[in-house]
Structures are given as C-alpha cells and as structure tokens.
Amino acid sequence: MIEVDENLIISIMPKRFKDSNKGDYGKVLNITGSKNYTGAGMLSALAALKVGAGYSILCSDEYSINASRSVSCDVIYKSHKNFDFEIVKAYIEEQKIDSIVFGCGIGVDSTTTDFTGKLIEYLKTTEIPTVVDADGINCLAKIGVELNKNFILTPHPAELARLLYTEADVIQEDRENYIRKAQEQFKVTIILKGYNTLIADNEHIYKNRTGTSALSKAGTGDVLAGMIGGFLAQNVSVRDAAILSVYLHGISSQVYTDEYSEYSMLASDLLDYIPLAIKEVCSSPLH
User: Fold this and answer.
1) Phi and psi angles of residue 6, each rounded to the nearest 5 degrees, phi first
2) N or C: which end of the chain has fewer CB within 10 A?
3) Model-level pTM?
4) In whole angstroms, what is the distance from residue 114 CA to residue 117 CA?
C-alpha cells in the first residue's frame, strides 16, 4: 500500500506553459447527464475545465443540453439524440477527442445499457482514455463487457459490489482485498471511493487521506469523474490522473470545510474550490 502524499502529487502535476493555447490542453467529451439528472452532466463538464482541460464538451440529450446552456457558456454542447451510437462515434472521430467521461447520471435502461456495450467495444479499438462512472458502471455490471488498460472505473462500494456480485457491506469490510480482486478481473485502474479512497492499478494500491464528510453528497462523484477526464486530456497517465484527481478533490472539500463546515457544501460549491486546491499544491515549497 502506497500513501498518496504531496511529494507524489507535485511530481505528477501537469505543467502549464506561457506559449500555449487551448489545443495544447486537450478536449474532453462528457457523455453524461439525462433529463432526470441534468446536473450530473454540467458538473462533470465544468470540473474538466477547472483542472485545466482546453475544451469540455457535454454530449447529452436535448433536455439536459437546454438546461445546461442556462448555467454555463464555457461548455460546448452536442446532442446524442437519445444515445445514438453512430452520432457519438462520428463526433469522437471528427473532433479528435483526447479523453472521455462516461456514465454520470445517464440512467440504467435498455437504451443506455445497449449504448454502453457499443461504446466500450468501440473505445477498445482506440487509444482514448475513458472514465466510466456511476450509471456507466451499473450498465457495465449488466452486460459484463471486457475492458482494457485505457479505462478507469470509479465505483463507490455499492457499484463495486454490483460488478463483483456481492454486497456493499462485504466490500467495506475488506476494501483493499476487493479493489485488488476488481483490478485483476477487469484489468483497469479502479478508484474505490469512500473514506481513505483507494486507487489500484496493475502494480500497486494507493491510499488517499484527503477529504471530509462534506463529500458525502450527491454530485461530488460527478465532479471527480470530470476532474479525471480533464487531466487525461492533458496527457496525464491513467494512474496519475486518478491519483491527482482524488487528492485534489479531497483537498477542495477540506478548504471549503475550513472556511464553512462539513455540512453545507454542494457539489457545485466544490467546483469553486478546485482552483484553491490546485493553488495550495502549486504554491508548496516542494513544487
């Protein structure tokens, strides 16, 4: 078990350059959100920009896009016409997408499950790093598609339990054992969210100790998924993007808690504290 500390974070934090433009920092496609969960798409899309991605595109249904347009002019919007796979595939190829965030708030039904299978099989033929979160994981649990090293899964205990056909309480009793089992089965980087979040790749398990109970609120996982996608778009490795995002996600909640409390933070508040978390890391004497 390796402890995630400031030295590790500073060593893997991507650099920014004066002579650069938005194209240098990547393009994230967020296939997230739905009519019932419009916030999920917006949170993931904005989080990708907050960690430095050059572009963030929200690919969702028309209802979510119309609702999101009233919230932000910073995001690009693309309708997938009720999860039409051919539309999404063509867009990925046309736009030369650098990373994908998939699954936050899409719902679980026959349409999204079918789309998940097609998308995963297609992405396995590419080199595009992809975060699969929330309902993307729940759809995956239903169809059992194989993955490869370009994927990151971000389950909470109940979602990991669905993947491994067990119960969340069982996972919680031996988190280290079950994240290793999941990594060996799916052969991807896995983030097991919760107190002292664990990150597993094919070599090590990392323990993150940042964070507060303020993160125990709907939508904070969508922010984390977007952060990972944002770092992936900047050519940060799958392992490092997972570690960086989990650490900064936790620091963001700590900065908020220091200013207010652990009770009142919203997922949308968390977006405003990502810059302060990054500032804390970048202003460290170790940086």
Assistant:
1) -60, -35
2) N
3) 0.97
4) 5
Tens of pLDDT, residue by residue over 51-85, are 999 999 999 999 999 999 988 999 999 999 999 99
CA 71 to mean position of chain CA atoms: 20
In the structure encoding, which two tokens stand for residue 204, read together? Answer: 């090590």
Examine the pLDDT at 41 and tell me if it is beyond 60.
yes
Contact 2, 72 (CB under 8 A): no
As beta bridge partners, residue 189 has: 152
Q: Which domains does the chain have, with CATH numbers?
A: 2-13+24-282 (3.40.1190.20)
Cα–Cα distance for residue pair 82/239, rounded to 1 Å: 32
Residue 103 CB partners (closer than 8 Å, separation 6+):
31, 32, 116, 132, 133, 134, 135, 136, 137, 138, 139, 225
CA-to-CA distance for 67 and 198, rounded, in angstroms? Answer: 34
Q: Tell me the H-state helices in 96-191.
A: 110-123, 135-143, 157-164, 168-173, 175-186
Q: Examine the pLDDT at 184 and tell me if it is beyond 70.
A: yes
Which DSSP letter does residue 4 get? -
E strands of 5-133, at which residues?
27-31, 55-60, 76-79, 99-102, 130-132
pLDDT tens profile 125-161: 999 999 999 999 999 999 988 899 999 999 999 999 9
Q: Answer whether residue 286 shows pLDDT above 80.
A: no
